[in-house]
Amino acid sequence: MTCQLHTLGGGRLGVGPHTFGTAPIGNLGRELQEDEWYGAVSAAWDAGVRYFDTAPHYGLGLAECRLAEGLAGRPRDDFMISTKVGRRLVSATGPVYGLDTEGFAVPATHYRVRDYSRDGVLRSLEASLARLRLDRVDIVFVHDPDDYYAEALDGAFPALEELRSQGIICSYGAGMNQSAMLTEFVRHTDLDVVMLAGRYTLIEQDALDDLLPECERRRVAVIAAGVFNSGLLATDRPRHSATYNYSLASEEVRRRADRIADVCERHGATLPAAAAQFVLGHPAIATACLGARSASQVDRNAGLFEAPVPCGVWSELIDTGLLRPDAPVPN
Fold it and tell me: What is the pLDDT of residues 192-211, one digit of tens each?
């Protein structure tokens, strides 16, 4: 597909279709060797990626630290970084014996405190800047405030508005695994970018009913994350052990993904390429955020945006009821 640059909110740089997500280099699922994670960051840069998304949550700050090392020496004005607030890291007291309990293979040296207050935002961002070895980040997301709507609305968003007005950050928004609350934030704050994870994909397009049209109306940029639905769409043919929404995929969902793979195969395309490119067909979506833990994964992800996906794929998916007819598709 044609590489088109989009502007993210009040950001200074245009972004390409491929954004690098850093959760895997925070030891998501397993511990990484230095050559793996460092190679992933270097490969992303070599592939032309200039926007990197991270968070304190990813490996209890490890992803931020590793991203800092991976980008050391790169011209600061040549890349964009987003991080997140809402999970403030607090040092554990006493000896550390176990590992983090939220999916990252790191020692439990800290614990996460959900804090969407103004003070919590400022303290979290200050700590992130120290780990990133930067004096500024470009975008700050309020991270997963599903159970903290009022706190985020009253505390986090006004704090981020203040930081943006002072020029300390360029843009702010929210990152969530749901579209309904993101839509409310778009309506009731002055955010200019959101990250939607897993809710606008080849499998589900409910965000067409709320978030995406609202973002178009208010000129809010959308970053599509979780485009593979946590693994279901990540391979040419869905595996029996494939996960959907971070749990084992049901037989019904896996059969649907298998039918989509059949259509792709008939037209000489692959399921992952169609999944990566589909989201970029919507005019509100600026880029797709794909995580990777090694150079080979980065190279594979980058190639998905260049792989041919004929128009016949989209028309057949719509004709067979596998894709909503009102879903915009890539040209």
Answer: 999 999 999 999 999 999 99
* Confidence bin at 2 (pLDDT 50/70/90): very low
Measure the CA dihedral 8/170/81/49, to 10°.
Answer: 30
Query: What is the pTM assigned to this prediction?
Result: 0.96
Of 58, 116, 200, 244, the catalytic one is 58
Burial of 18 (C-beta count, 10 Å sphere; 0-12/13-18/19+): buried
Q: Which residues contact 310 (CB under 8 A, 6 or more apart)?
A: 267, 268, 269
Residue 58 among the catalytic residues: yes
Domains in the chain, ordered, with CATH? 11-319 (3.20.20.100)
Looking at every residue in the chain, the average pLDDT score rounds to 95
DSSP-derived 3-state class of residue 152: helix
Residues pairing with 53 in the sheet? 21, 82
Q: Which of 202, 186, 188, 195 has its CA nearest to residue 285?
A: 195
Query: For 4, which DSSP code?
Result: -
Per-residue pLDDT reduced to its tens digit, 49-77? 999 999 999 999 999 999 999 999 999 99
CA angle 66-68-72, nearest 5°? 120
